[in-house]
Design a protein that fits this description.
With about 350 residues, chain A is of the alpha/beta class. The first copy, chain A, contains 16 helices and 11 strands. In chain A, the strands form 3 sheets. In chain A, strands 1-4-5-8-9-10-11 form a 7-stranded parallel β-sheet. In chain A, strands 2-3 form a two-stranded antiparallel sheet. Chain A has a two-stranded antiparallel ribbon with strand order 6-7. In chain A, strand 6 and strand 7 form a beta hairpin. In chain A, helix 15 packs parallel to helix 16. At the A-B interface, helix 10 and helix 12 of A face helix 10 and helix 12 of B.
C-alpha cells in the first residue's frame, strides 16, 4: 500500500503536530453534489449504489476531486448490518430507511445471528479495497459503523422514529432481550470494523446518532457500554500504523467525561456545546472532532469564514482538533460553499499550529 | 376567585416549603386518554377543539379527574399566535402542524402584525376563565406559549422540520429580518401571556422546543434573548399573588447558566441531564422542573417507581423541585401507568420534605 502523502487527519486524531487543522465532512459523499445525484440515479436504488463497489468507490472520491479534504470516508449506510442479518432494508422516497421484517419479539432477537463481514457483506470490503487503491495514499480512508443502540433503534422501530416507543419499551420491560440484541450487534460491529480495517480503512468512526435520546444512566448502560466493548475488540494497529477510533454521539455533550473513558482516540461533537468547553472537560485525554452547525453552509462566504474563525479560536492552540460539521451536510447546500468552508479551515487554522 | 386549596406547585416554583413534591405532565390533557379522544372526535379538527372554550375546558379537566395532579394546564397549541397573524394553521392526519401561508420573504415578515390577544384570540381567554371557574381553587392553572424562536421555526418552515433549512438560512443571511420576526413574536407572546394571567392563569410556561437545534451563541442571540425580553414584560403579581414563570428549552441543558439569568422562577429540564448536575450548576437561583423520560411510562409499576426514586434522590433534600416528564407524555402510554407515576411522586418524595 502507498504511504500517506497527507496524514494530517491521522496525526490530529493522535494529537500530533500538524501544519493546519485537517477537515472532512460527515456525508461528504452525498446528495448536495450533482455528480452524486447522477450516479445515484444510474445505480437504481440507494442500496444498489451501496452494494456496487465500483459506484460506491466513485461517489466516495467525488468530493475529493472538488475539495481539499483531508480524509475520504467509505460510502455506505449504517444499516448494512441488519440488512445482512436478514431484516430487508429498503428506502422509501422521502421517508428514510425501512425494514421489511423489524425486530418485534424476543424470538426475533434470538433468531438473529452475529454477522461475518467477509461472508455477509463482501461488497463493503470490496469497496474499501477499491477506494484505498484509487486514493493511492493521497488521504486516509475512514471506515465506519452505526453504534449498536442506534442500529437497534431502526431494527426495533422498523425505521426512523421520534419517540422510540418500541425500543424504549423493550429496554424498560425486557432489558435482558435488549442486552441480547445489543450484544449481537456489538459483536457484529466489531467484526465489521475489523474487516474494514484489514481491507484498508485507516481510521474508523462509530456513529451513535440516537444515543442522545436516552437519559444519562440509560445511555451508559445501553449505548456507551456497547461502544466500549467494540473499542476494546478493535484492531488498533494495522500495516504498522495506529488505527484511530472516533466515537460520535449526537446530543451526547453532557456525557463527555464518560465517553472519553471508552479508550477511543477522538470524540465527535455536535454544535450545541462550544468546543472550548468540551476541551476543558476532556483535557488531554482525546482529540475532538467538530463542530460547526451544518446550517452555517447556507450562509455566504463571510458567514462561513466567521463561524470557522470562532470555532478555531475556541479550540485555540495545541494539537488534537479535526474540523468537521456537527452532523451530516444538508442536501440543499450549494456545493460552492463547501469550497469556502474547506479552504477557510486550512487558511485560518495555520496560525494555531505555529 | 377561590383561594387555592392545593398550592404545592406554586410554592415549589417559588422555592418555598411543601409537604411532598408537586407533579404535573406536559401534554397531560391529550391523546393517551380515551375520554380525550372522544371529545376530540366530537369537536371535529384539532383547531376546532382549541377554539371551543367549553371543550378546551373539558379536556383540561379530564386528567385531573383521574390523577392527583398538582396543576392544570390550559389546553391549547403553541401555534395559536401565528394562526391569529393570518398564516392559516391546520393539522394533517399524522403529519403535524402546517401553515397555508408560511413566512418566506422579508415582505412577509414586514406584513405581520403583533397580535392583540383580547381581539385576536378571545377563545383562549374564554377557556382560561372557564377553567379557573371550574377548578374552583382545587389546583393552580398554568398558562403557556411557545417561544419566539420555536414558533418562528414552524412559521418559516411551513410546519415541522428536522434540519431547519429555511429559518437557519434566514438567520444566517438576513439576521435583521430574523430579528424583526422574533421581535414581533416576542411582543405578541408578552401580550398573550399577560392576557392569560389577567384572565386567571396562576403560572406560565414558555415552551422552547427547538432552541436546542441552535449553537450556543445562536441560541443566546435568537432564542434566549427574546425569552428574556418576554419575562421582563410579564405581569409577575396578580390577585395579590406572585405569578411564577417557567422556561423550558428542550436540549438546552448546556446553557443552564445563561437561562437562569433570564429572571425566570423555574427552568424545565429534559431527561438528558441528571437533575443533581443541573441543580449543582444553577445553585439556589431558580426552581427546577423535570425530568423523567416520558418513555419510562411504557414500563411497569416497579420500573416507574424506581426511576422516580432515582430522580428524587438526585434532587435530594430542599425546596424548588416540580416533578414532570422531560417532554410531553406519549400517545400510546397506558393511562393506568400515569396513576402509578403521580401517586409514586407524592409517596416517595415525602421523606425529602421533612
Amino acid at each position: 500500500m502507498a504511504e500517506l502523502k497527507n496524514d494530517r487527519f491521522i496525526r490530529a486524531l493522535l494529537k500530533q503536530d500538524v501544519d493546519v487543522t485537517p477537515v472532512w465532512m460527515m456525508r461528504q459523499a452525498g446528495r448536495y453534489l450533482p455528480e452524486y445525484r447522477e450516479v445515484r440515479q444510474e445505480a437504481g436504488s440507494f442500496m444498489d449504489l451501496c452494494q456496487n463497489p465500483e459506484l460506491a468507490c466513485e461517489v466516495t472520491l467525488q468530493p475529493l476531486r472538488r475539495y481539499a479534504l483531508d480524509a475520504a470516508i467509505l460510502f455506505s449506510d449504517i444499516l448494512t448490518i441488519p440488512d445482512a442479518m436478514g431484516l430487508g432494508l429498503y428506502f422509501e422516497q422521502g421517508e428514510g430507511p425501512k425494514f421489511k421484517k423489524p425486530v418485534q419479539t424476543p424470538a426475533d432477537v434470538e433468531d438473529l445471528e452475529v454477522i461475518s463481514t467477509e461472508k455477509d457483506l463482501p461488497y463493503v470490503l470490496d469497496a474499501v479495497k477499491l477506494i484505498r487503491k484509487a486514493l493511492n495514499g493521497s488521504v486516509p480512508l475512514i471506515g465506519f459503523s452505526g453504534s449498536p443502540w442506534t442500529v437497534a433503534t431502526y431494527m426495533v422501530e422498523g425505521g426512523s422514529s421520534k419517540e422510540f416507543a418500541n425500543i424504549k419499551s423493550m429496554m424498560m420491560n425486557t432489558p435482558e432481550v435488549m442486552h441480547e440484541l445489543l450484544g449481537k450487534l456489538a459483536d457484529s460491529v466489531t467484526d465489521y470494523l475489523n474487516a474494514q480495517i484489514r481491507a484498508g480503512a485507516q481510521a474508523v468512526q462509530i456513529f451513535d446518532t440516537w444515543g442522545g435520546a436516552l437519559s444519562a444512566h440509560a445511555y451508559e448502560t445501553f449505548s456507551l457500554n456497547y461502544m466500549k466493548k467494540i473499542v476494546s475488540g478493535l484492531v488498533r494497529e494495522h500495516e504498522g500504523h495506529r488505527v484511530p477510533v472516533i466515537l460520535f454521539t449526537k446530543n451526547g455533550g453532557h456525557w463527555l467525561e464518560k465517553i472519553v473513558e471508552s479508550d477511543c482516540d477522538c470524540v465527535g461533537l455536535d454544535w450545541t456545546i462550544p468546543i472550548n468547553e468540551a476541551r476543558a472537560r476532556v483535557g488531554d485525554k482525546v482529540a475532538l472532532q467538530g463542530n460547526m452547525d451544518p446550517a452555517v453552509l447556507y450562509g455566504g462566504d463571510d458567514i462561513i469564514r466567521n463561524e470557522i474563525a470562532l470555532i478555531l479560536k475556541q479550540f485555540g492552540h495545541g494539537n488534537g482538533h479535526v474540523f468537521n460539521l456537527g452532523h451530516g451536510i444538508h442536501q440543499f447546500v450549494n456545493p460552492d460553499h463547501v469550497t469556502t468552508f474547506v479552504d477557510a479551515v486550512h487558511e485560518l487554522s495555520a496560525q494555531y499550529h505555529q
